Prior knowledge:
Blueprint: E1 17-21, E2 24-28, E3 34-38
Antiparallel strand pairs: 1-2, 2-3
Amino acid sequence: MGESWGISLTKDKVYDCLGVEPPFLRIIDDTEEDYLYPLEKFRRLDGSAISSGEL
């Protein structure tokens, strides 16, 4: 994640993604619960953007 967003996400932390529900990713956040977050808020580990067209 490139910037802090939401109250349960930490900048530059790697998160597990449980699934894709365009235009959202189901992420296990810092509360250890899974929630939907907009995919444009996240990046791959190589730093590239995730686009809904490729999901």
